[in-house]
Structures are given as C-alpha cells and as structure tokens.
TrEMBL record:
Keyword Membrane carried by entry: no
Gene Ontology molecular function, alphabetical: ATP binding; ATP hydrolysis activity; transmembrane transporter activity
Residue ranges occupied by any ABC transporter domain in the UniProt entry: 11-248
Assigned keywords, A-Z: ATP-binding, Nucleotide-binding, Transport
Protein name as it appears in the record: ABC transporter
Record's GO cellular component terms: membrane protein complex; plasma membrane
Keyword Transport annotated: yes
Organism, as annotated: Virgisporangium ochraceum
Classification via InterPro entries: AAA+_ATPase (IPR003593), ABC_transporter-like_ATP-bd (IPR003439), ABC_transporter-like_CS (IPR017871), ABC_transpr_LolD-like (IPR015854), MacB-like_ATP-bd (IPR017911), P-loop_NTPase (IPR027417)
The organism's place on the tree of life at top rank: Bacteria
Pfam families registered for this protein in UniProt: ABC_tran (PF00005)
Amino acid sequence: MKDTGDITDAVRLTAVRKVYGRRDNQVVALDGVTTRFGRGTFTAIMGPSGSGKSTLLQCAAGLDQPTSGSVLIEEQELSEMNETALTKLRRDRIGFVFQAFNLLPVLTVRQNVTLPLRLAGRKPARGRVSTVLDQVGLAQRSNHRPAELSGGQQQRVAIARALVSEPAVIFADEPTGALDTRTARDILALLRHASQAAGQTIVMVTHDPVAASFADRVLFLADGRLAGELDSPTPQSVADRMTHLGAFADDGPLPRLVTSRGGQR
Ligand SMILES: Nc1ncnc2c1ncn2[C@@H]1O[C@H](COP(=O)(O)OP(=O)(O)OP(=O)(O)O)[C@@H](O)[C@H]1O
Ligand SMILES: [Mg+2]
C-alpha cells in the first residue's frame, strides 16, 4: 500500500523559473511552475521537445538552481542549503536517471551501480546489488564495461544505479527511451512497484503514452509552463492530450492560455 498517511510532499515546486543565457539570447526554460509530488506517488512528465522537462527535473533534484522560485525536498528548501548539505541530500535521498546515462566507462556495470553508495561512504548489501541487477535483466553483465553494452543495456545500468540505494525520490529522464517494448514494460513495472510497495516517489519524463500510463498522474509541460494534468492516465487519454500539445507546440500558445495569463507572451 502507498504511504498516504504522511501529510508532507516529497517534492514541492513553487513558481519555479529558469532562464538560461544572457540578456540578448535568453531562453526561458521554465516559466513559473508550481506543483507537488506526494510521497509514494508516480508522476510522468510529458511535453514537446524543448518544453522544459529536463530542466524541471534538474531543478527539482537540486542538480540545477532555478533563477527564482522555491524547491522543497522533504520540506527542506534547497536554496537555503549549502553545497555540502545539498550533496548529502542528493546522495542520501535522491536517485537520478539522466537522459544521457552518465556511466563511467572505466568502471564495470556493478561498480557503476554501487558508485553513489560508495561515494556516500555506505557499503551496499551484497544481495541488494545482485537483486537490482537481476531486476533490470543485467545479472549476466555485471562485470562488463559500458562500452561493451548496448544503449538499452546502458540505460538499465543507470536505472539500477538509481534504484540500488532505495532513495526517497527517483527522478528519471526518459528512462525507457532506448528500450524495446517488453524491457521497457519490465522497467516501468519496477518503477511502479518502487512507488507502490516501497513508498518511493517517482518522477519520470517520457514521450511515450504507454510509459506514462504506468504513472498515477501525468503533468504536461508546454513552453516552460504546466499545460495540464491527467489522473489515472491510460495510453489513449495521454495520446489524446499529446495531440493537443503537439498543435500547441507548432502553432504557438493557445489563445485561451494567453488570456488566462493576462496576455504575457
Ligand atoms: N544549458 C542551457 N543553456 C541554454 N539553454 C538551455 C540549456 N539547457 C536547456 N536549454 C534550453 O531550455 C529549453 C528547455 O530545455 P529542456 O532540456 O528542459 O527541454 P526538454 O523538454 O527536456 O526537451 P527534450 O524532450 O528534447 O529532452 C530548451 O529551449 C533548451 O534549448
Ligand atoms: Mg530533455
């Protein structure tokens, strides 16, 4: 069962804005995002390329600093933490699966998976590492190096690395993008299990309506803003909404949104 007895959110974003670049070539990657991720929930984040999904994840995970706005992880305001405290929080409480897998080429699969724990000075339980490698289907590859693996296998190493320390929150940026349908389904079931059985909070970026349907909720981003939300998503309901967002991306902001924001853009 889900840990719904707790009133606190795992992650809360308030008016998060992220502007890249200098004055003459500024990019507004996030334009005032307010949302929350309850403990033990599984949320998918969708939206056109460039809509700010990775930026949202990086800011929410304390890997990047918003230009303004607030990010709370387990009630701790990230902007008020020094680098040491932030590093500790990321190591102890957060798992991250990057869009680029960020594996160290000189380390084996097993070493890559256990690296964050070792950096935190913790010794992984031996059984735990094998269990996770088995769950992602890489038990036979534990002594190989990333260059000896396929793209999808490397992606699964990155997922195992995020799962192994059983962090409170897992942020995953397109974790199944390089996987075949069946392997993807196994990984998604694993993530869903992590939220439902272990009470971990999962925030996953994906372009795939089927992947999103494994989540409890889908957040849609367009142009750096939240553009909708869907509870208990199905592949069909997500696909319908994506079609709408596709038009949104091609034709610029919908008139309705412009007026509701006071004609800001
Ligand atoms: N370091 C950076 N410097 C300048 N602009 C950036 C930087 N990182 C991202 N951007 C811009 O911010 C916007 C949002 O980027 P982001 O990577 O969050 O998009 P995304 O939704 O993850 O896209 P995709 O689906 O292609 O991964 C884009 O316009 C991108 O070009
Ligand atoms: Mg991205």
